[in-house]
Amino acid sequence: MMHKILIALALLAAPLLAQNVEEPLSAQTADGQAIDGHIDWSQKILVVYGEAVAPDHINNPVQRRLMGFRGAKALAYRNLLEMVGQVQVDAETRVQNFMVENDSVSVRVQGIVRGARVQTGSQTESAEGLYRLALEIPLLGTFSQAVLPTDVPPPDRTINYALPIPAPASILNDSLLLASDDAAADSLALPVDAPPAIYVPPKPYTGLIVDARGLDLQPSMSPRIIAQDGRTIYSASSSDPDYVAEYGLAGYDKDLSHAQQSDRLGGAEANPFVVKATAVSGLYSGDIVLGDFDATLVLMADVDGDFLRECRVTFLLGPEPIVIDDAFIDSLYIDSTHLDTLSGGDLLELPEQIRPSDSTE
């Protein structure tokens, strides 16, 4: 019982901490040495480590430190060139595929690697005399322009007005209104050539959040959003290339509350449209699949918000959230003053960092 009370108190009082979406990477050099690195998909950077020892004949501590870190940096450059090929470009290909097939891409990527910088605070020295540091390169800007394909056909963004009406519970945005319930049913049940349904949102949407939690979505540089009927709703070819290079095609987050107020979607004034993904697609599970009805809602919301062209899209990753009812909180005899924010029988997502373990303490 005490364990449950602590969970509830943490839910009420602890602020939600932003968690970067990081993907560990592993590779081997030609001589079999393991390479350590990761991609921070929240910051869009690739980080790779190098480590070395100082030559035995150097006794001066300052010189040993200098030579140790110089050796670690040289190895980090070599490791970075090996690791950069592991970066996922889209749901089907990695950077190494483009480097093998296109000498121009290979030359440009090698130049970017040579311009890598030492990550602030990454330099460490162990008691055994092992020097370690990390190099990082951004996956935006020139890197994005070098590896993203330019011959991708434009997506089919045809709005299908003949889609069936799903149960109301499947519509995640209560603020997204049609002219009336009756008008919505009539307009979406009409043939394709019928007049379009009319959105009457309180204000334009500033971005899109696709909830892919529980679906094992794998981050990539160029994800797509596709509908179950095969339409491509969102891809690199549907966005402004300048926005793609500067911000990346999509952001990745683990927390819904943080994503809803992120700078990418409008900051404190953000009004994102939220939709639930039904599946992932692609060889490396990097693409999002939406139900046909939800895909149409996204396209219609974008007519006024124009957020897809400016890459104002965020995908939620991680396990399916644990949902509890506020009736459970009431049963814990917590001071009623803490329950004001939980009124109305709303369902609450339990943050990942305070989820209960299997312990019964």
Poorly predicted tracts of residues:
1-17, 167-172, 174-190, 336-345
Write down the overall mean pLDDT.
Answer: 79
How many domain modules?
3
- Quaternary state of this entry equals single chain
Question: In words, what does this structure look like?
Answer:
It is built from 10 helices and 16 strands. It folds into 3 domains: 2-17 and 321-354, no CATH class; 22-147, no CATH class; 168-316, no CATH class. Helix 3 crosses helix 4 (103-114). It is elongated. Mean pLDDT is 79; it is low at 1-17, 167-172, 174-190 and 336-345. The protein has 361 residues and is an alpha/beta fold. The strands form 4 sheets. Strands 1, 2, 3, 4, 5 and 6 form a 6-stranded antiparallel beta sheet that branches. Strands 10-14-7-11 form a 4-stranded parallel beta sheet.
Based on the model shown, name its key terms.
361 residues, alpha/beta, four-stranded parallel beta sheet, 20% strand
Care to give the gist of this entry?
This protein is α/β, with parallel strands linked by helices and 361 residues long. The chain has helices spanning 2-13, 61-83, 95-101, 103-114, 142-147, 181-189, 241-247, 256-260, 292-305, 326-330; strands at residues 22-28, 34-40, 45-53, 117-118, 124-125, 130-138, 207-211, 225-227, 232-234, 251-253, 272-276, 279-281, 287-290, 313-316, 322-325, 347-350.
